[in-house]
Amino acid sequence: MSQHSHERIRDRADGVWLVTRILVYVVLGGLALVAIATVTSVLGPMVALDLYTPAVAAWWTVFTAIVVQGVPFLVLGTLVSATIGAFVPERVFTRLLPRNPALAVPVAGAAGAVLPGCECASVPVADSLMRRGVAPAAALAFLLSAPAINPVVLIATSIAFPGNPAMVAARLIASLATAVVMGWLWVRFGKEEWLRPAKRRTAAEGGPRWVAFVGGLQHDFLHAGGFLVVGAAAAATFNIVVPRSVLDVFTGSPWLSVLLLAALAVVLCVCSEADAFVAASLSGFSPTARLAFMVVGPMVDLKLIALQTGTFGRAFAVRFSAATFVVALVSSVLVGWWLL
């Protein structure tokens, strides 16, 4: 048998071994996540009851809900990210997007409609896009639009607000406008030194593509998963610290109610697939305030800020999150005044 035949057999064996490893990781990882979620949700309230602290039981409930809600979409994002890094050539993105970053921003923002995931998924995907040669402004526009205007989110919004298509249209327009404006702002004012993406080996740097895929999948999930837990813990702490009576003070003012729900969207960390139902339940607030809740939440919340900090660095996360909050708030008010 020739040397070439031996190499082909060895490559096939390596491929089978890598596929087997991936399946083992997926099965064992899924079982571990289910076990952790089950133990946390069961033992947390039991410990709280033993200690006679209802606040701790509430903290465990909120924390578990956020983590369990975010993990599936984080897995989706890391799978997409690893696939892009290992199998998609850089030339694909350079051909699809205009070379001018200002023109690439609206194209990338509109492309966010094709990824059915939440904000947990968009960060590793945007990181992978940048490492594959996509202009940061376009990748950031995609990061903001993907969790806000994808079909799953829009369908959920239409179900949460039955007979009110204006709310669905307002969410789509305000969210896309925010993503595009932030992309253009990065073109004008953004600096490369603010971005410090984590470096790792990709298929473009040599080596089998499956090795790069498995390495990228492990890195992204473990790296981003830790920051997801940190953000969830912060949101759960807010839920038990701020008294309900404080929130009721703001419902009487339309402007304060917009600011309040925008701030709540940041700290509550509700997944974009579910935030429409939370907004619909806040019937005491104006439609514009509830729109602000749905526009700000998928773009700026505690777990997303934590994920951005871990992926791109603190200098980027602080500046980008603050600017996005302001732009999203203004966009919500303008679109709400126009359509609602």
Uncertain spans: 47-52, 198-206
Number of helices: 15
The total strand number stands at 0
Helix content: over 70%
Overall geometry = globular
Any idea what the radius of gyration is? Answer: 21 Å
Succession of helices and strands: HHHHHHHHHHHHHHH
Biggest sheet layout:
none
SS strand fraction: under 5%
Oligomeric organization of the protein chains: single chain
Distance between the termini: 74 Å
Question: Can you give the mean pLDDT?
Answer: 76
Question: Helix/strand-derived class?
Answer: mainly alpha
What report would you give on this structure?
- With 340 residues, the chain is mostly helical.
- 79% of the residues lie in helices and 0% in strands.
- It is built from 15 helices and no strands.
- Helix 4 packs antiparallel against helix 8 and helix 6 (136-149) packs antiparallel against helix 8 (165-189).
- The protein starts with a helix and ends with a helix.
Write a compact overview of the structure shown.
The protein is 79% helix and 0% strand. The chain is an all-alpha fold and 340 residues long.
Any descriptors?
340 residues; mainly alpha
What's the arrangement of secondary structure elements?
Blueprint: H1 3-50, H2 54-87, H3 90-96, H4 101-111, H5 119-131, H6 136-149, H7 151-160, H8 165-189, H9 209-241, H10 244-248, H11 254-268, H12 275-281, H13 287-296, H14 302-312, H15 314-339
